Amino acid sequence: MSKIALITGITGQDGSYLAEILLEKKIIVHGLVRRSSLIKTDRIDNLYYNPKYKSKFFLHYGDMTDGLNLVSLVKKINPDYIFNLAAQSHVQVSFETPEYTANADGLGTLRLLEAIRILSKTKKIKFYQASTSEMFGNSEKSLINENTKFEPVSPYGSAKLYSYWITRNYRDAYGIYASNGILFNHESPRRGETFVTRKVARAVSEIYFNKSKYLVVGNLNAKRDWGHARDYAFGMYQIICQKKPADYILSTGKNYTVRKFIEKCFKFINIKIVWKGKGLKEVGINKKNKKVLVKVGKRFFRPNEVHDLRGDSSKAKKAFGWNPNTSIDDLIKEMMVEELKTLGREN
Ligand code: NAP
Ligand code: GDD
Predict the structure, then answer these.
(1) Catalytic: which of 8, 101, 132, 252?
(2) HSE on the CB side for 89, CA within 13 Å?
(3) What residue owns the CA closest to ligand 1's atom 38?
(4) Which pLDDT tens digit goes with each residue over 269-312?
(5) Could you tell me the pTM of the whole model?
(6) Which of 8, 134, 150, 161 has its CB 3.0 to 4.6 Å from that of 32, i.e. a possible disulfide?
């Protein structure tokens, strides 16, 4: 008998990679999709319309803020695995929608765990929670591991920390197989367009095609530990395959500033950026022709910021051999090639 998985957040970046991996592993995949006035299944259409997966891939309407819907879906689907990836996942947006973020990202997890408990599935269903490096805030200046203190600095980070703990609470109190993957930033050509890596790759490609004059960003000095979403989705699958539930960090162990990421993307189109000025007046200039290609905009700064994230994933490596296989340069290459291809087609 094939195993059955329910993925919340299947229309997102990670959900789409995870669905591919599970289907390859012959697992039947059910996904939760929010109803909206426009259809947003672009990232999974290749699976949904693939005849190979006709009786193996199913979508259901639902929402993390609707407990009755979640209970009835868990009852109907009767999954072996639940991957809880659904979230309002944008940190800056969480400052503007803190209550909604707490509801979807925090209480949503509780609703799913309660569904497992109420339906007496505590011994059947394995639960994966999409936890985040954002929960650490600025508590650690060097390498972060599973024992580092949590000190979130955003409504998003705080809501996710609630989910992290409620996952552990249900594991300890009810014996549910429930694990947290504490993932550092991971990107891909499928990344949402308002996250910094995709935004930069897109803008640099637009500049290449003369569709845009410059890029406007916020904090150039924030450092992130950026990996590839495909590698991290495989790590999620490996986490849920472990004999015992536990919490694991997935990260590359290397980090770069937003400034460096921008320089690397421009380098891909043979432009060298030099920086001039300070703070909001700082600009990135094309060294060759002195044109301003990067500006700093106040609106992209957050009320509070995580300055520096870098993770130690040695626990995951030791337990199941997980490795972040994609280097930052390969990640940028893949993102830039995809972006240039898309814009080239539109030209
Ligand atoms: P994403 O691209 O923003 O996808 C989020 C998904 O959640 C989308 O499918 C979205 O649906 C869905 N969703 C949002 N609110 C919902 C609600 N109320 N009910 C049902 N579905 C809802 O995020 P991602 O990058 O794939 O990340 C996946 C998960 O990992 C998230 O929980 C995120 O917080 C966490 N995480 C991400 C990273 C990272 O670097 N990517 C790192 C650590 C943790 P729509 O398509 O309808 O918007
Ligand atoms: N989005 C964005 N847009 N960020 C910018 C910009 C800009 O124009 N300019 C500078 N930044 C900085 C942000 O201030 C932050 O320090 C860094 O770039 C990364 O921002 P995002 O790409 O929005 O990601 P994030 O680190 O805030 O959050 C992502 O990673 C978390 C894991 O650490 C999201 O995927 C979260 O869902 C995830 O949990």
Answers:
(1) 132
(2) 24
(3) 185
(4) 999 999 999 999 999 999 999 999 999 999 999 999 999 999 99
(5) 0.98
(6) 8
